[in-house]
Design a protein that fits this description.
single chain; 106 residues; mainly alpha; 6 helices; globular
């Protein structure tokens, strides 16, 4: 199994379990970051699998953020790790805030 396939498998399984520790969520975010530069090289089925996993990730963003907040400050992590703005999965805090604002606007 190639490295990118391991990262894809890790990520697609991890997003299905939002009730895990913040440390496991950090591993999931890192797996997604390893996939980012490879996205254009994925097969159609792998791309579909990744998009489905991303949708599941977004559906559980609140739970992931809550667990991650117990072990680290996300904005500090992004700064320390020089996370690219295009790596939206590292911006759970902003995704959750935006979701709450959208709910209030309804």
């Amino acid at each position: 199994m190639t490295d990118y396939k391991k990262w894809l498998d890790n990520y697609t399984v991890s997003v299905k379990f939002p009730a895990v520790s913040g440390f496991e969520i950090l591993e999931m975010l890192q797996a997604r970051s390893h996939l980012a530069p490879l996205e254009n090289n994925l097969s159609k089925s792998e791309r579909t699998e990744l998009e489905s996993a991303d949708a599941t990730f977004l559906a559980h963003a609140n739970e992931f953020y809550a667990s991650l907040s117990e072990v680290s400050e996300l904005s500090e992590l992004r700064a320390k790790m020089n996370i690219l703005p295009s790596h939206w999965w590292w911006h759970l805090d902003k995704l959750v805030q935006r979701s709450k604002l959208a709910t209030l606007a309804m």
